[in-house]
Each structure stands twice: as structure tokens, then as C-alpha cells.
Specification:
The chain is mostly helical. It has one domain. Helix content is 56%, strand content 0%. It contains 3 helices and no strands. The protein has helices spanning 10-14, 20-40, 48-58.
Length: 66
């Protein structure tokens, strides 16, 4: 998995959060940014099968990853 991934709450951490509307606006901007990265090909996607295998290797006792 790529080491340069930003925290999922990156937009909220950087925003001056003052209320629920600000949080929703920050998430909307984050979603738009991520969608633009996917659409441009700049973001690396990882198939669920690969992610699941990686998680199982990290926690072999947990097998309920469908």
C-alpha cells in the first residue's frame, strides 16, 4: 500500500471547524478531491482481494473479512 496516503480525515484536520456545516463542507471538498484523483488516474486503487489478503496477513485470527 502506498506510504504517501493522507489520513482519511485530512480535510477536516486542516479546516477551521466551527460546526456541523463546516464539517460537511470539508468532507464534500475531500470527496471531490479524491474523485478528481481517481478520475485523472493520479490515485492508486487496490483491489479488495489484495486488501483482504493484506489484512488477513496482519491479523490471521480474524477470518470474517468477506
Amino acid at each position: 500500500m502506498a506510504a504517501d496516503k493522507k489520513p482519511s480525515a485530512g480535510a477536516c484536520e486542516q479546516a477551521d471547524i466551527g460546526g456541523q456545516d463546516d464539517v460537511e463542507d470539508a468532507w464534500y471538498r475531500e470527496i471531490e478531491r479524491r474523485a478528481a484523483e481517481l478520475n485523472s488516474g493520479a490515485a492508486e486503487t487496490i483491489p479488495w482481494k489484495t486488501v483482504r489478503a493484506h489484512l488477513r496477513a496482519l491479523a490471521p485470527e480474524s477470518r470474517d473479512l468477506s
